[in-house]
């Protein structure tokens, strides 16, 4: 019984330390940049030795991989339930869905600016493998968006001749540009909201049947 209690406590401590290392890495990356940050900088901020760091992460790249994976899980969670492609039945419900997703993405951006910076500005400068990984994520996002559009075509509230695949990738391009604008002027929330509304207006105005 005591061993189980001790193991549970040890596991909680391990998870907390891993989170502390991630937080410290975020701060160092933000202040110094990914390439200028050394493992010693991260370890010093947490107050641990190099050996402890390497028991949790292989290197800086491993940390970034964790960040990207967690980011995708959080974004995917936004696209379930009422925000899933099959949840809407007409153009009015589609607009409402877009507005919900837009608001949730803005909230995510406000709460995770460093994550966006690492994903959009730092990751593709690390190596070819990471660049291809990010490109594949963008490709996947475009295909997921195409599923929303195809659902609209199938139900008849989007044009029958709509090129869902290429339009989906174009929409992701606009969303990515909005994220970059946010990173440039994070304090201007009104501008970001208006940008999101303009994307929705453009989508619906250009695609409705």
Largest sheet: none
Find the CATH topology of the largest domain: Tetracycline Repressor, domain 2
Low-confidence stretches: 1-5
Number of domains: 2
* Total of helices: 9
CATH class of the largest domain: Mainly Alpha
Overall average residue pLDDT: 90
Topology as a string of helices (H) and strands (E) = HHHHHHHHH
**Proportion of residues in β-strands:** under 5%
Shape label? elongated
Termini Cα gap: 65 Å
Radius of gyration: 20 Å
Q: Find the structural class using helix and strand composition.
A: mainly alpha
CATH architect. name of the largest domain: Orthogonal Bundle
- Strands, total number: 0
Q: Please, what is the oligomeric state?
A: single chain
Helix content: over 70%
